[in-house]
Amino acid sequence: MSTREAFAELRASRELLGNLTLRELRGKYKRTALGWGWSLLNPLAMMATYSVVFSVLLKVEPPVGKDGLSSYPLFLLCGLLPWTFVSNTISAGMESLLANANLIKKTWFRREILVVSTVLSFLVSFATEMAVLTVAFLVFGAMVLPWLPAAVLVMALLAVFVTGLALLLSVLNVYFRDARYLVSIGLQLWFYATPILYPIQLVRGADLPGWVVSAYTANPLVGFIESLRDLLYVQRVPPLGTLTYLVVVSAASLALGAWAFSRLEGRLAEEL
């Protein structure tokens, strides 16, 4: 089946996709006291912890934004919220096939829907958190509203990028059960190799070989997070080269994930 036919079948199954996404959303905080409040409380708790360690104890200074804005918590959330979306989506997405093994064995449908519904459920949480962050910027006097459409486009590209990774890892996790442990280690390394807790200027200003800096900036999350910070914190248009790179890497991630999934999904029911 061609990629075009696969996407056509996915569009035809949009009702199933919607139902599975709603199931993920309803089940995420089922029978908890705070419910969706945990979606906001978790990143806020992380922000408070990292702010004390890096801003108060280690004296990390955030860059100065529009109209003299200098707030480490706002600077941090611009990176922490996208990272949380990526990390949670990859972790849950790669387990989505195993978690729905009984459903896969009982009936046939596009298996990609299970992964995509997981991505969409976390995308809703991500959008909610970014809306709260927008309100926080407005409270601090930063008029970010004109920059929101561009920020939404960057968020959409990030969702495409992480969907490709989730498709790839979900099907690999069925055949190679060690994948989850390798990914867990990889996410820890990826977190610190991305300018979430610290300004990217610390890396560019360090006495490092040029190839190390080039490899560092090739990390797609560097481009995604710095673009969101440019739009919301600094309030300027990200470099055209960065935006072009994000489009290319997102398309490549989705294409690779879809290709790998189509090649390996044939024996999913037997492996599960």
Structure description:
The chain is an all-alpha fold and 272 residues long. It has one domain (3-271). It is 76% helix and 0% strand. It contains 13 helices and no strands. The chain has helices spanning 3-12, 14-28, 37-57, 72-99, 101-106, 112-139, 148-175, 179-192, 201-204, 210-217, 220-234, 240-264, 268-271. It starts with a helix and ends with a helix.
Note the main attributes of this structure.
single chain, 272 residues, mainly alpha, 76% helix, globular
Which helices and strands occur, and which strands form pairs?
Blueprint: H1 3-12, H2 14-28, H3 37-57, H4 72-99, H5 101-106, H6 112-139, H7 148-175, H8 179-192, H9 201-204, H10 210-217, H11 220-234, H12 240-264, H13 268-271
